[in-house]
Amino acid sequence: MQIFRTLTAVLLANTAFALVPVGHTPSGKPIFNAPPGSRVQQIGRDFHLFARNGTLIHTFLHKKATRLARQSDDTSLRTSQAIVTVGPNDTIAWVNASVVVPPPAATYESQIIFVGPGLQQLDANGTAITLLQPALQYGASFAQGGPFWTAVLLIEEPPTEGFGFILTVGLDPRVNTGDRVSMAIGPDPATDLPKPFIWYQALFPSIPNLIPFELGFNPDLPPTQAVISLEEEGAFAASDYPSEPVVFENVNLTLTTGFPEVSWNTGVNGAPGVSFTVEKDGSQNARISLSFPQSS
Q1: DSSP for 151-164?
Q2: Where is the signal peptide (predicted)?
Q3: Per-residue confidence at 141, pLDDT binned at 50, 70, 90?
Q4: Structural domain boundaries of the chain?
């Protein structure tokens, strides 16, 4: 199974300190690694990566894919999600969850899998265009590949189409089967952030050596979806997936006004045999399981 084809004239970069890919997904999608402590600012559909001291490191210029390229890439993208969409006057404050790291897949074919909670931004047509996510990553890491789990903080643009980029940050900390890992996205507490951008940070509270990743969303398009998300590429057989479900526990969604009355929608299933099940619904201490073909 594949997510993304090669980025033909889709991702452009231009700064004096332009990043170069530190790895690629199986289909050739580049993975960039941001220096710890850096932050991303969204201007229009472009993303500007800044060092902590304000130096512009890299600019990711969005270029819309052609109709032909999008048709080709749609067949390779496998995204499955449980989703809550908030109202236009609501502001998401926090999304939290914890998981126990599952066993590795029985076979390794350079597949790459991301699982975790996230904040998702929609365009005026309701199409997802940006995903900010602390995630467990299985398979190819930003530095090397292998049959192991890694904790990463990432931005995908866009998460539901076959073009864009993956930007990760971290020290490549491996996590082990059986570890309990907590993940969160919430308001950025820094006081020196440019306005009027809407600033969030993604973090692993249970992994102290991972510096939070900051993203300033375009103020005209605040994130309106909380998600529990799976993105995958290169998993062709049941044995390419973990042998046990990933269970998201202590799933909390908080608005600036408190805990809303919500139900998680599990209608987005991108891969055969992969599914989300809401075992306990709501915005407080929900429980959502992600089952794979051989873990059902």
Answers
A1: EEEEEEESTTSS-S
A2: 1-18
A3: low
A4: 11-82+96-240
